[in-house]
Design a protein that fits this description.
Blueprint: E1 7-17, E2 41-44, E3 48-51, H1 55-70, E4 74-75, E5 81-82, H2 108-114, H3 117-122, E6 131-133, H4 147-157, E7 160-167, E8 174-184, E9 190-198, H5 202-217, E10 233-245, H6 261-267, E11 280-283, E12 286-292, H7 295-315
Antiparallel strand pairs: 1-9, 1-10, 2-3, 4-5, 6-9, 7-8, 10-12, 11-12
Helix pairs in contact: 1-5, 5-7
Length: 319
């Protein structure tokens, strides 16, 4: 499915920290004055060292939230696609579908057909996923760094340090190493990120939106020390750019509407749903559909989540 580019999209969004955020680095380095638990950092050439949110960390949270909403359910009517496998059990997870038999490499179409909904979107050890989550930074990524970006950058890197104490649950007194300190990004800071999708179906955008919505609603949290109240964020969708092959369809559609019936059956593609009517412009060999923040992007979000819900209705024998 990745040999030919049929459709693709980039979703731009912004996170706002409602409570402090702590995504820990693997070590503290050699600085003896550093906190016991420090935030992960990278280097930005114009601005210097900065805290950030690794794309892998953010993808893990979105995936966990999305999987929890579909696990234990079967989708797609007669196709009977599992909502989410158990990634910790390699005997039953989608990872087993990529094992090579006596004939050599596995059939990629068969592997795709046997993967669950979550693995079809986020990937598994047997198959590459449809979405790629990029790192999030405390500036918008515009060509020039604005005063607003610089101010937000400075707030993000003015990390708080909180003290904690190890308490024995048996004795109720201080245990282990006693006191520790922890860095955290303060509340009220913005992080900007992007998620890229390739050859995706409408329901896959809906499953992604479902995970983002759970973060925005506060049902999922980001980073460590979540039980202590950290990691509550708000998610604002800023822009979506969708491209598909020119001449394939007049309006934006999922990949299921861009391939022939035999390919649909071979890969086990689920029922396709239309995306909201959106004006387009020619862009090389493609058509580009650009969706701005506010009602336009909310229509895409609602439409894609309805496409996901429609698969469940079909699985239950509904209309």
């Amino acid at each position: 499915m990745f040999k030919v580019s049929l459709n693709r999209a980039v979703l731009q969004y912004r996170l706002e920290t409602v409570t402090p955020l702590s995504i820990r680095a693997g070590d503290t380095g050699l600085d003896p004055t550093a906190a016991s638990l420090v935030c992960v950092r990278t280097h930005h050439r114009p601005l210097g060292p900065t805290v950030y949110v690794p794309g892998s960390s953010f993808k893990g949270v979105i995936r966990a939230a999305a999987e929890a909403s579909v696990r234990g359910q079967t989708f797609g009517g007669e196709l009977e696609v599992e909502g989410a496998c158990d990634p910790g059990d390699h005997r039953t997870s989608c990872a087993r579908h990529g094992r090579r038999g006596a004939g050599g490499s596995p059939d990629t179409a068969l592997v795709h057909r046997r993967n669950c909904l979550a693995c079809r979107l986020f990937g598994s050890l047997s198959m590459r996923g449809r979405c790629a989550v990029r790192d999030l930074f405390p500036f918008s990524g515009a060509a020039e760094i604005s005063d607003e970006d610089r101010s937000n950058f400075e707030r993000a890197n003015a990390v708080e340090v909180r003290n904690g104490v190890f308490i024995s649950r048996i004795s109720g007194s201080v245990a282990g190493g006693g006191v520790f300190d922890q860095e955290m990004v303060p509340a009220g800071v913005f992080f900007y990120g992007e998620i890229a999708l390739q050859n995706y179906q409408a329901w896959q955008l809906g499953l992604l939106m479902s995970g983002l919505q759970q973060l925005d609603d506060g049902f999922a949290q980001l980073g460590s020390s979540k039980s202590r109240g950290l990691g509550v964020v708000r998610v604002k969708l800023l822009r979506l750019v969708h491209e598909q092959r020119a001449g394939a369809q007049d309006g934006p559609v999922g990949v299921g509407a861009l391939v022939d019936a035999s390919t649909q059956r071979a890969y086990g593609l689920l029922a396709e749903s239309g995306l909201p009517k959106t004006s387009h412009v020619p862009y090389g060999l493609s058509r580009r559909f650009e969706v701005d923040a506010g009602p336009p992007i909310e229509r895409w979000k609602d439409s894609s989540m309805k496409a996901l819900g429609g698969l469940l209705t079909a699985a239950k024998g509904g209309a």
